[in-house]
Design a protein that fits this description.
36% helix, alpha/beta
């Protein structure tokens, strides 16, 4: 696609928590790039769109922590239900239901307040995703985030080339980043970027995890 995006290689995930490591430095640069435009807007909503059929929640969780380390109150939302089967090494990201937050039954700070460890809010199933990941629900979530003093809301969704809900979320956020996993094909990255360009929501960066 004829769009200008930044290519940000993050490097190995094995040293992400080491202050000053290449990956930590790259995440800090991404935080600065995403936080600078429209910094007066709060909360700032950012979508990490994947290049495959899974949401890039672990990378988004790293970015969420990088925002927290920079002093921003932030939290992460997956646009799709959590996978029941963890990967070979198991996911280090805990999940919590999104619906009680949107319905006002639970406060954000009681679930995702900084210091509670990596947590991702997500729908329970496909039907729940229809009810919780839509423009009206996202607006309610952002209003709630603002009222509780959060600065950043991160969304993670699968490739917009095959998942229309990711495209819908992109229309409700301030910034879009395409997050390519290490095994992503060139065509998969190109298709994800093209889908965002076609939706008039071109990504600001392509992050190579």
């Amino acid at each position: 696609p004829s769009t200008s995006v930044g290519i940000l290689p993050l490097g190995s995930s094995s040293n992400v928590h080491q202050r000053g490591s290449p990956r930590a430095a790259a995440l800090n640069r991404l935080v600065f790039r995403l936080a600078t435009p429209g910094a007066t807007e709060s909360p700032r909503a950012i979508l990490l769109a994947g290049t495959g059929d899974r949401a890039p929640t672990e990378l988004a969780s790293e970015l969420n922590q990088a925002f927290a380390d920079a002093g921003a109150r932030s939290f992460l939302v997956s646009t799709v239900p959590a996978h029941k089967k963890a990967g070979r090494n198991g996911s280090k990201v805990a999940t919590q239901s999104l619906r009680p937050i949107i319905d006002g039954k639970v406060k954000l700070k009681d679930v995702v307040g900084n210091g509670h460890g990596p947590v991702v809010l997500c729908p329970e199933d496909a039907a729940d995703a229809e009810a919780t990941i839509n423009p009206k629900s996202i607006e309610r979530l952002l209003v709630k985030a603002k009222s509780e003093g959060f600065h950043v809301v991160l969304f993670a969704g699968p490739t917009p080339a095959r998942h229309s809900r990711t495209v819908g979320v992109a229309r409700e956020v301030n910034s879009v980043v395409v997050a390519a996993d290490p095994h992503a094909t060139r065509s998969g990255v190109r298709d994800a970027v093209a889908a965002m360009v076609d939706a008039d929501r071109p990504p600001s960066d392509v992050v190579v995890a």
